[in-house]
Write a structure and sequence with these properties.
The protein has 172 residues and is of the alpha+beta class. A hairpin with a 4-residue loop joins strand 2 (87-93) and strand 3 (98-104). The chain contains four helices and three strands, in the order ααβββαα. Helices cover 33% and strands 12% of the residues. The chain is extended, with a radius of gyration of 24 Å. It has helices spanning 9-25, 31-38, 111-130, 157-167, and strands spanning 52-58, 87-93, 98-104. Residues 7-138 form the Condensation domain.
Length: 172
């Protein structure tokens, strides 16, 4: 959905809900057809429709056991295998605490950068809870602190070669 920064957080949630319900009503459309119709700018380096994901889960207190004739069914917890998107935040409310799990493409982000997102996201969540009717543009952007120590660019191979030639012209 297109985000209008003049909307409040609550209005944005309504827009996202409506867009999600519309998408679910058409979930039988093949992914390839969707991509063809949307015709996004393509790059093999990333997902064609979105690169960042936020997902909220709520664990139900009363679990209903799945019963299948002749089969024993149990819950299976599995480990996530790498990042499927450039950046993903999954939040799970277990009724007591809200847990967060961030996954990121390590070739795009450094761990320290992603960890820097966490206090900013917590501050944003607090602001959204304190003022859900405030326009989105008033919330401010995430202020991620740049790395404290900036390295100089590594010398190119030919620069190193030239330096060796100048310092040891008679060496092979």
């Amino acid at each position: 959905c297109q985000v209008d920064e003049r909307l409040s957080y609550l209005d944005l949630l309504v827009q996202i809900r409506d867009t999600s319900f519309g998408a679910q009503a058409h979930q039988d459309v093949p992914f390839e057809q969707l991509v063809d119709q949307l015709a996004p700018e393509r790059s093999l380096g990333h997902n064609p429709l979105f690169q960042a994901k936020f997902n909220q889960n709520v664990i139900l207190k009363q679990k209903t056991a799945l019963k299948l004739a002749g089969l024993e069914v149990s819950e299976y917890a599995f480990d996530k295998q790498g990042a499927h998107f450039d950046l993903a935040l999954d939040i799970t409310d277990d009724g007591t605490l809200i847990h967060g799990d961030m996954a990121y493409a390590s070739d795009l982000y450094r761990r320290a950068t992603v960890e820097g997102f966490i206090p900013e996201m917590l501050a944003l969540f607090k602001t959204l809870l304190d003022a859900p009717q405030a326009p989105l543009f008033s919330l401010g952007a995430l202020a991620i602190e740049p790395p404290r120590q900036v390295r100089e660019a590594a010398p190119q191979v030919l620069q190193l070669w030239d330096q060796q030639v100048r310092t040891q012209p008679d060496a092979l």
